[in-house]
Amino acid sequence: MADAVTSQTLQDGTKTAVMKFTNISDGSGESAVAKVDVSALESSATGAACTRVTINKIWYAINGMEVQLYFNASTNVFILELSGTSDMLDFSSFSGISNNAGSGVNGDILFTTANHTDGDTYSIIMELTKHY
Predict the structure, then answer these.
(1) Tens digit of pLDDT for each residue in 11-44?
(2) Are 28 and 2 in contact (CB under 8 A)?
């Protein structure tokens, strides 16, 4: 069996992408799963591919588990951990959390769940600024 997960792109414009992710856990969890795949985002008006994103805002509701976010790289770079509540985090006053991953960076954002048990859930919406 596997966790029941969804990923949905709510908006994918020239400058901004908004994405929604959900998980209903069966207790197996997720480990370094690519949730934001920058290569799948729309190109710029001039045809340039999106190479990285900056996290501007996160809305989340989490029941019973923790969700760790990472920038994908040869050694993944920890961003933050979301846990057991609902909240809205706004990083836009300082231009967001930019991808500072080093060697092997591909621009993607990964999710890993921790302390998950059967029936735990998360719903996460992220507003992202796209970079080309």
Answers:
(1) 999 999 999 999 999 999 999 999 999 999 999 9
(2) yes
